User: Which sequence fits this backbone?
């Protein structure tokens, strides 16, 4: 999911890099929103579904169900 830039000395390359970073940020924001939405169904999920959601939450920086209950 990362990008490697060998040369970043032209304006065009720098603009491309900024655009790619912006797209990644927007994608991350959408992912965070979806992970947060899934917690509305947490009680209806299987234990393995809950575990997977908690792992996704940790990866995206969203508080887990246990963290919210503290």
Assistant:
């Amino acid at each position: 999911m990362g990008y490697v830039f060998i040369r970043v000395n032209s304006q065009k390359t720098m603009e491309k890099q900024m655009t790619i970073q912006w797209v990644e940020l927007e994608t991350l924001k959408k992912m965070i929103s979806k992970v947060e939405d899934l917690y509305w169904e947490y009680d209806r999920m299987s234990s393995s579904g809950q575990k997977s959601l908690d792992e996704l939450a940790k990866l995206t920086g969203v508080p887990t169900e246990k963290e919210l209950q503290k």
User: Anything to note?
Assistant: The chain has a mean pLDDT of 81. The CA atoms of residues 1 and 24 lie 9 Å apart. The two ends are 33 Å apart (CA to CA). The chain is about 65% helix and 0% strand.
